[in-house]
Structure formats: C-alpha cells, structure tokens
Amino acid sequence: MRRLLPVLGLSVLTACASLPARKYVVFFTNQSVELNEPAKAVIADVAREAQSHPGKIVQVEGYAAAGGDLSADALLAIQRAKLVAATLHEDGVSGDRIRQTPRAPTSGEGMVVGARRVEIELVSP
C-alpha cells in the first residue's frame, strides 16, 4: 500500500498539469464597451494570475452579438478586446504579453448574452 502512494501522487500531479487553461470571461451589456465592477474584478484576478505566471501570454478575445450591421458589431468586438487589454496593462500586465484577437460575429449569434463578452486565457508562448 505504501508503494502505491507515490505513484498515486504522481498520477494526480500529472492530471493537474494537463488540465486545460482556465478561461476568464468578462461580460458586457448590449452595444456597450463599459466595464462594470464584476468585470473589473475578473480583469484584476487575471492580472494577479498573470503576474504569478510570468512566462505565459495573456490571450484576449473580444466578441459582440450580431445585430443589423456586422461591421459595427466587429468594431465593437475590437473595442471590447482593446479595453480589456488596456485594463490588464493598467493592472500590471506588460503590454508585450497581451495578445488581442477580435472575433467577428456571425448572424447566427443573435443578441445572446454569451456573444457580448471578452474571453481571457493564460497560454504558453
């Protein structure tokens, strides 16, 4: 039984190391590029996590719900990603570690809350 404990411990550590990266999500109200207090808290959490993992890149992906004008919606996704990236930078994350990727809306996304978001993830370079 004692021989199995180290093997079990290593198995647990291996499983933890292979877990996918956590995605942090910042939600916006419809047609908005303003951060509310819960959104600011999420970004502050990511900034602290990024400082704990200096070798990781902070990937920021902006989304917008598809409305009548897909060009305007794409611009909204860009603005949201830029705002979150700027706030991460203000919270101490170096600008060279932040990668922004706006995601153009598709007409199938509609006005659902999940489409009005920015996803943040710490990834290996």
Automatic annotation (TrEMBL):
Residues 15-125 form the OmpA-like domain. It holds the Pfam family OmpA. Transmembrane segments: none annotated. The keyword Signal applies. Keywords: Membrane, Signal. Residues 1-17 form the signal peptide. It comes from the Bacteria. Gene3D superfamilies: OmpA-like domain. SUPFAM superfamilies: OmpA-like (SSF103088). Coiled coil: none annotated. This is OmpA family protein. It comes from Acetobacter farinalis.
